[in-house]
Amino acid sequence: MQTSTATTASIMAFQSLVNEIHDLNATQALLGWDLETHMPEKGSAMRAKQMATLAKLSHNLMTSAEMDEHLRHLRQPGIPEKLDTMSQALVREVGRSYDKSKKTPLELLQEMVETTAEAHNIWVDARANKQFKQFEPVLRKIISLNQRLAEAQGYEDSPYDALLDEYEPGLTVKQLDPLFAKLKADIVPLLKAIQDSGHSPEAGFLHEGFFPAEKQLEFSRKVLTDMGFDFEAGRLDLSAHPFSSGSSSHDVRLTTRIDEHDVFSALSSSMHEGGHGMYEQGVNPVLNRTPLAEGTSLGIHESQSRLWENQVGRSRAFWKHYFPKLQETFPELKNVTAEKFYHGINRVRPSFIRVESDEVTYNLHILLRYEIEKALIEGSMKVDEIPEAWAAKAQEYLGITPSNDAEGALQDIHWSHGSFGYFPTYTLGNLYSAQFFHTAKKQIDGLEDKIGHGELLPLKNWLNKEIHWVGKMENAAAIVQRVTGEPLNARYFVDYLWGKYGEIFKISR
Ligand code: ZN
Predict the structure, then answer these.
(1) Is 373 a catalytic residue?
(2) How many domains does the chain contain in total?
(3) How far is ligand 1, taken at its centre, from the CA of residue 197, in Å?
(4) Which helix (H) or strand (E) holds 255?
(5) Tell me: the pLDDT tens digits for 456-477?
(6) What is the pLDDT of residues 155-178, one digit of tens each?
(7) Do 425 and 167 contact (CB within 8 A), yes or no?
(8) pTM across the whole model
(9) Exactly one of 136, 166, 168, 273 is catalytic; which is it?
């Protein structure tokens, strides 16, 4: 099959338009990184203007007549099949974003921006005062805007599907419900058994002592280097909240936060962000300057960070190699053994705050939010019913009841941002990571032994080849099927938890 001259011209012009849009977005991301890391305080007002200008330019190009013309031509029946696979994927992905932005009325978008800008401060105050009532009016508005957004985008079964699709393309309530049901059925009894075991690992040594920031940073950089993070194509800096961003596979920015009275949290968050960053560095460089280089979905992205943070960074094998090195760096740990340290970082106890929770209880926090979000968007729960529903679910799943709204419905920033449908991608990340790691152990000879000797590159290379390289050329479902030979299955995560914590707490199913 031959592509016509008109099609060749159109695909070339389309690609250069996509490149320009991506350059604007990448520059905006770099300005955002700078804002969180190095920008002097007085720079913030001008920085907001600079970023808004870039966003407007990018939006104008994305919705331009030129873009419309190219997509119209390139999506005609018979044309996509004649394109090479990268061009096909590019037309599909850019077309998808284009359709979404066309379906969203501009006034709805503006109302969302204005409402959430205002909501942020209201949420900060309400949380400080521990008063959900204060947040209710603006939250009601945000939910109604999200419902309108879902109607505008369209859906088959639940309006919540339209919102999920923003973060995890193709994911639906129909697929999520059984995954969460399995987690609930298997993790609630696991937590109960852990609590009944009478074993509560000691963990005070993680906070007892002074662990200087420079030494912590140096240790994190060493581990990231061993993991295969390329410091010639990336950096690690400090920020108030850890994140990763970047402008291409050759320039990835990670941040971490250091508490000089906590020996583990900065390293753990560096490994987490390193997993995100290595995903971006591992994408085929041919895809740079296009959205295909960004990673296929939030859930798959989160699987890469969780895999390094938990499957590796909270494993006995990893600490067999790294604990003596940590001890050398921080003599405060001289009376602690590797085994004691391993138990300490895997202590399990229900807490009110999601971001402080352990591997066992984490997804119960997400389940609670998922059920509430879905009910709010579907209209079966009212905003003023949230605190009571929250307390009941916290009691049922975690066995604890928050004593105020700051420990309950006001703890997360997401709703004030207008983000509904985002939380489930955290759990998807955990589930994908266990399924990928299970496959990695089958395919890489003696993987755990290698990790136990500080050889982390075989795992990194496997992830590069199996998951990172394709970027967004394949969607999440296709990647999981190709790599693991089956669709997403919660069993791997549940088995991982029972195996690991069963051994630590000497309990069985
Ligand atoms: Zn993450």
Answers:
(1) no
(2) 2
(3) 31
(4) strand 251-256
(5) 999 999 999 999 999 999 999 9
(6) 999 999 999 999 999 999 999 999
(7) yes
(8) 0.95
(9) 273
